[in-house]
Design goal:
With 427 residues, the protein is mainly alpha-helical. The chain is built from 17 helices and four strands.
Length: 427
């Protein structure tokens, strides 16, 4: 359906011959794009995954930094500089290929393709190329001065994949609007969807276990066929598990390199467990069980004041999820959850609804800040002087410890600074 819509839109704009490449979930690492001028193979997908991971991590760090920047617009400038730098690193990465001598040997054995992939795979998991690149990006961000005494509402963004990741008119410029209204955003990485696809593949495979094990079995004594079926089943299951583990490993080491108060990808079994009482985790389509699970997870772990679910008008999977969210919110009255369609109701109406929900979230944030001011022994002037004397506390890469049940960064920061002053920490 989406492919047809894109082609129709391009045709209406006068671009009938514009190429549209379709990537199928079932195609794996090798997709049929014959005649499109693009070879879609494991090397291509590896490059795409690296690019997406770098973009995810940089994007997350930018949204965590911008609301607290002292010099307005500095984060955007550093972000652009970092993007240009990472673009150059991606473009000029040395191509990993077998030497002429080894290639000739493996060609005779018809192993060239497999050994080349193995060589590239080993380089991927052992090379520090992208880690070193992010170390340079970290230095760029350390030039930004942040003021964490600013009280901000933490808003987690979920919803339909495109609407919750696009920046611009597609979602009524919602991210900048939220920041303008005093919010710090927890945006959703593309990596979550990749993890979700691994999870769906594993669930689908496990559900077919009995059928696969009995495939072609003639009688109860057909041991050879049974063993063959079992090995095939376990092979695919192992590939899915290892692939998922390796993706998390690569994402995690890049995330740790850039540092800051980062959020690692949530394990899918955790999300499945949270969503299962409200939603059948085997249902396909859209974000599946993730919208419900993330709403519960981020509220239960004190990571946000509210969850905003963005979706285009008529998005069936997300609307289906919203129906179950009603039960979630009914059983958890302290939650602030707002589903928002970004096409059918108009920008003014959408922003009005967001402001109403933000109002309730601001009440939560202000209470946390008021409680912190009553609890800490130091006054705000003393704490500011302490921070001025310790420049590392003004760096966006500095990690502020979180108190259980406290979401507001300003409140957490006050507790932390007061604790440092009490302990007489000088550096």
């Amino acid at each position: 359906m989406l492919e047809t819509e894109y082609r129709m839109a391009l045709q209406d704009c006068g671009f009938e011959a514009f190429r549209v490449l379709v990537f199928q979930n079932e195609g794996g690492l090798t997709q049929d794009t014959t005649g499109n001028g693009l070879e879609v193979n494991p090397e291509f997908f590896l490059a795409i995954v690296n690019a997406l991971n770098l973009a995810d991590i940089l994007n997350d760090f930018g949204y965590a930094t911008r609301p607290f920047e002292v010099v307005e617009g500095q984060t955007d400038k550093v972000m652009q500089k970092a993007l240009d730098y990472l673009y150059e690193k991606l473009e000029h990465k040395k191509k990993i290929q077998l030497g002429a001598k080894w290639k000739a040997i493996f060609d005779k054995l018809h192993w060239s393709e497999a050994m080349t992939f193995l060589y590239r795979f080993i380089d991927q998991i052992t090379s520090s190329y992208y880690v070193d690149a992010l170390k340079e990006v970290r230095k760029m961000f350390e030039a930004i001065e942040v003021d964490r005494f600013r009280s901000k509402v933490a808003v987690k963004i979920t919803g339909e994949f495109w609407a919750m990741t696009t920046v611009g008119a597609g979602n009524f410029h919602m991210f900048r609007f939220l920041e303008h209204e005093g919010a710090v955003l927890l945006v959703e990485p593309v990596g979550s969807l990749i993890q979700f696809l691994f999870s769906k593949g594993k669930l689908r495979h496990l559900n077919r276990r009995e059928m696969m094990l009995k495939n072609g079995v003639k009688n109860r004594w057909d041991v050879k066929t049974r063993i063959g079926n079992y090995l095939k089943f376990q092979k695919k299951l192992t590939v899915l598990k290892v692939g998922n583990w390796l993706f998390r490993r690569e994402y995690g080491r890049l995330l740790r390199t850039l540092g800051g108060d980062y959020h690692m990808l949530i394990h899918q079994p955790i999300l499945q467990k949270l969503a299962s009482p409200y939603y059948n985790i085997n249902i396909e389509g859209g974000e599946g069980y993730m919208e419900i699970a993330k709403n519960i997870y981020y509220h239960e772990h004190g990571l946000c004041h509210m969850v905003l679910s963005l979706k285009p008008f008529g998005c069936m999977p997300s609307t289906q999820s919203d129906g179950a969210q009603a039960a979630v919110v009914e059983l958890n009255r302290e939650m602030i959850f707002l589903p928002l369609e970004t096409a059918g109701e108009g920008e003014t109406n959408a922003q009005s609804r967001v402001l109403m929900a933000l109002g309730d979230a601001h009440v939560k944030a202000k209470k946390e800040l008021a409680d912190a001011r009553k609890t800490v022994a130091s006054d705000i002037e003393t704490m500011r002087k302490y921070v001025d004397a310790h420049p590392e506390l003004k760096s966006p890469t500095y990690v502020v410890p979180r108190r259980k049940g406290v979401v507001n960064m300003a409140a957490n920061f006050m507790y932390h600074i007061d604790d440092l002053i009490k302990r007489g920490v000088s550096s």
